[in-house]
Write a structure and sequence with these properties.
- It is a single chain.
- By secondary structure, the chain is mainly α.
- Helices cover 50% and strands 0% of the residues.
């Protein structure tokens, strides 16, 4: 994940015509309210400052994170896009949670229910086989 963010994000597209990697990252960051990969200083929002996307921006107009990393109002608009993207300001308007951690936490919520459903399904299938065997024995 970190490699795609640092070496493939923002390459081959622009704001209106994004490549697949950029489109995917922007969607994940907007949907899960996250930024970067992990929830730490090395691989979170700071990872963008070590990316090809950052290096390819004109020096005088660089933004520190994509707009999809900016905290949003209820209507989906950034709270303060300028403060969020300004390389001189702090990270108070940027999501602090990394996307790996956000998606993993959401997946962890469903681990136990899905396991219970799977085990229950296997048990029902096993009982069905036993009934079919008993039925077959009684017929012959």
């Amino acid at each position: 994940m970190l490699n795609t963010l640092q070496f493939e994000y923002g390459i081959g597209g622009n704001e209106n015509n994004q490549d697949d990697v950029t489109f995917a990252w922007n969607n994940v960051q907007e949907e899960w309210d996250c930024c970067g990969v992990f929830s730490n200083e090395e691989a979170g929002p700071i990872a963008y400052l070590h990316s090809q996307w950052w290096l390819d921006q004109p020096v005088l107009s660089r933004t520190k994170v994509p707009l999809s990393c900016c905290k949003e109002k209820d209507n989906g608009e950034p709270i303060d896009a300028r403060h969020c993207q300004d390389p001189i300001t702090d990270y108070s308007q940027v999501y602090k949670v990394g996307c790996y951690d956000a998606v993993k936490a959401h997946g962890d919520l469903y681990t136990i229910p899905l396991s219970v459903i799977g085990i229950t399904h296997a048990f029902i299938l096993f009982i069905s086989v036993i009934f079919a065997y008993c039925f077959y024995r009684n017929m012959g």
